[in-house]
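Sample intake sheet
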Amino acid sequence: MIKRLTLQLLILILITCPYTCAQTDSIASDSLRPLIPYGALKDALHGIKCTLTDLSFRTDYADPDSFRLPIVDTVMLDPLMMISFSDTLSNTLFEQGDDVFRNLAAFREYGFVQLQKLSTPKGRKETISLSSTRTELKPMVRFRENLGFLNKNTVGAFKELVDKSVQELALVRKIADKPFTDLPDAHRSFIMDTLPRLILEDEGLEDAPVEVLDSLQQVEDSLMERFVDMAEELILSQTYRENRAHSDMECYERMDSLARLLADSIPKLMDSIEFSFTTESELGRIAIGGYGDNSYRGEYILIVDLGGNDRYELNHCSKPQIILDLTGDDYYAAEDDFAIASGLFQPAILIDYTGDDSYNGYNFSLGSGLFSIGVLIDYQGDDFYVGDTHTQGAGTFGIGALFDYDGIDSYRCALFGQAFAGVHGLGVLTDGGGNDIYFAGGKYTDVLRYQDHYISLSQGFAYGWRPDMSGGVAILADSSGHDTYISDIFGQGSSYWYALGMQTDFAGNDKYISYQYAQGSAAHLCLGILMDKSGDDYYFAKGVSQGCGHDLAAGILIDYDGLDNYQAWDLSQGAGSANGFGCLIDYAGNDSYQIKGKHNTQGYGNPRRDYGSIGLFLDLMGQDEYIGNGSDNAYWIINSRWGIGVDRDYWPKPDSLKDER
């Protein structure tokens, strides 16, 4: 369990801790492969008269802004560290432990990373006590409804439990507000109105006249300028810096304890009764549902439903919110933006324990955090998730997380989703098993580049607003299953402008399909990595993908085992462009590589700004087939002095296990 480590200490641990990959049939039983093949990398770099120290970027190419996360600067100095960081973080997300919420990173301006272990509720027996800073509970709920469905001996316990819940949520509200004490109401209103406007895209702009596009851009630039100044003033304030990270985690520790208490206590009080009970409190509406099919509509601060196939049609809640559903095939629908596990200055949790569920969100939903934390947890069932923008594990100035532990699941979003991190944000999506499908895009045309492709900016994608605001950290991790990932422009372990985007898949025969800026790609002073641990995988992209770093950026695609197929057009499969570093590493398996543009793929680096880029292509074992530049058991150079391709069997060899860095 890692608690409140500075990033520097965390990175030291990641570098110095030994790691070995899982053994496979293609490797001798006494042979283990290192996480990072430093020996093979050194050999390849030697072929272009470079060393490992050349794989580094300065952190002052652009003027540092107040939103820069220290982890981004640290990894920019050593991009290979992405491999260790992504591996450690994704493994931590799936480890068993005490509490799902404590794995969330509470890094803010301090540069802290708080990683603790996850757990599932299956078999949980312990009794959870509710903490409170008050010695006496003042009644906060007026029970005007008939409580005749309760045994008379349990009426008092029920009232006390509900009242205690409201008391705790009221305390959470105060804790969540604490970092914003110095923020004037007018500034808060401006931020709440402007930030969504800056994030959301307009549909149908591909046919708009140039004058209209220019006018919209001018308005957005004006809003952005005001927002940057206001946001910078906020995050640099002493009150915010002292309270934000600790406030987030304290809120979630309290909400977690409350959720576990309610999940344990309410069924004992309600027995097997079918009913739906609603009451009003000083903080907001509360509903307790029995074992029948219940419906909930509107705004709630607390819902606990014991069973049945329930229907939730929910509006944005401006207070702390907890929704618990213990079993049933449930339907969740957002009636407006900022609904369903959406934190906007106040935290929100939705936990569904079992059932084949459908989650239908608009913008800022399904695990969305803006200046707060939004978490959606689904433990069992074949589930369907659909949202528009900033959804399914998306955080901007906050933390957004979606955890799905089991089932054959479908994820669909338009933009900024499926593990997305904006400025000063963390976005997390983890899926624990099943043959899942992830789709991002299809709605907002990429008017800057194409008329027939759509921006995705999803699936382990981190994003900064160039040139004023650095981006955050995003990770999409899937533990098993034959999964399909589909994006269009920007996705699948990629990033833009001083951000870190990561995607890890542990097992299964997976398909990765995208068009551009994807599959371990980074553009403009940032970092992106796609890591696949095992399985016979298929990768397809048009360009600037499959291990590509463009413009002082680093992109890595690393596949550890399986019979894999790679297809791309240009500037892919280990390509460095405009002083970037791109790297494709395939450890084992009889693989196939196909490319169209031979001039800048499979180990290519071009010159820019009077010096070069670095592109590395490494296949380290197997009998491989090439349509393009490479060939099995060979070295090759592609039109430059800064790129190289290597196909060579490195294992099993005892000396290859040494860290030769």
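Comment: DSSP finds eight helices and 48 strands in the chain. The two ends are 28 Å apart (CA to CA).
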